[in-house]
Amino acid sequence: MSGSRSEVGARLGATATAGMERWRDRLALVTGASGGIGAAVARALVQQGLKVVGCARTMGNIEELAAECKSAGYPGTLIPHRCDLSSEEDILSMFSAVRSQHSCVDICINNAGLARPDTLLSGSTSGWKDMFNVNVLGLSICAQEAYQSMKERKVDDGHIININSMYGHQVSPHSVIHFYSATKYAVTALTEGLRQELREAQTHIRATCISPEVVETQFAFKLHDKDPEKAAATYERIKCLKPEDVAEAVLYVLSTPPHVQVSLVLTAPTLEEPRHLRGGQQGGLRGWGERPGCLKPCAFQQIGDIQMRPMEQVI
Ligand SMILES: NC(=O)c1ccc[n+]([C@@H]2O[C@H](COP(=O)([O-])OP(=O)(O)OC[C@H]3O[C@@H](n4cnc5c(N)ncnc54)[C@H](OP(=O)(O)O)[C@@H]3O)[C@@H](O)[C@H]2O)c1
User: Could you report the per-residue pLDDT of 51-73, keeping only the tens digit for each?
Assistant: First the structure.
């Protein structure tokens, strides 16, 4: 998949486009909306007519995006909200402001995340905490608050989408992202746990994780903030996804009918298939539908197979 800003949603079929109709004028929270994937998702949702609360620490970028959406005449609105997702207090006060100033959160896109280059053998505890606080705790608090907000207003068709990573399903040989990968494995477990608890609560609110491969954003430049050349190389050595590709996947997930639950792995189609998919199907947007309570064999099966191989074959 590749995409440009104006194209987001354009490649969805008529059924998916119709599926987005039910979300018009409803409220979505997008975390990490100040850049990269979060900004693309926020823009795409505003284009589809939703009211979007976009949060992050850098307000200026979200304000610019809100103005851009307004001048483009998109049917929805983007409401910037400053929130440090490593602070429980900030998150709770954001949800309280949304409740009092708007309505309940119908969709929660847990996108904010970061990686610090703190390895397991010599990295700092503070770097680990930075990642854990946002990628795991911030995401979990937002998911819980979003669920409570939906429950209070008797919203039974809400959706919580966690932006995970391929590294939430396989451990990379790059030591600088081992701890990051652990936080993303947590996202895999948290999303499945959430799905089970939602089922137990007999609600039709859905939980989905989307696991992209490398996406060209500022992510690597923040990870390697002392070595911009290394960061740039991350995006040069392979064909990357664009933030708009992930935004389109979010629209697809939201547009599925309420009885369908989707999890997605996003890969960029390359001439040489990524090593963890060798022997598997071609790249692109791959997904599978599953009925609540009935997990089916899925695309991750391929990754599971590869993890079972001897190390030399994986690297
Ligand atoms: N890029 C990739 O290759 C890739 C691949 C797979 C998955 N992902 C995942 O996709 C998500 C988005 O990443 P991206 O590539 O778009 O990265 P990005 O361009 O660096 O954007 C990260 C976003 O997270 C926000 N954020 C970070 N710390 C925060 C905090 N303490 N409080 C509030 N917001 C915070 C940032 O906002 P502020 O700094 O303004 O607060 C920014 O909006 C992450 O969860 C990442 O793990 C990325």
Answer: 999 999 999 999 999 999 999 99
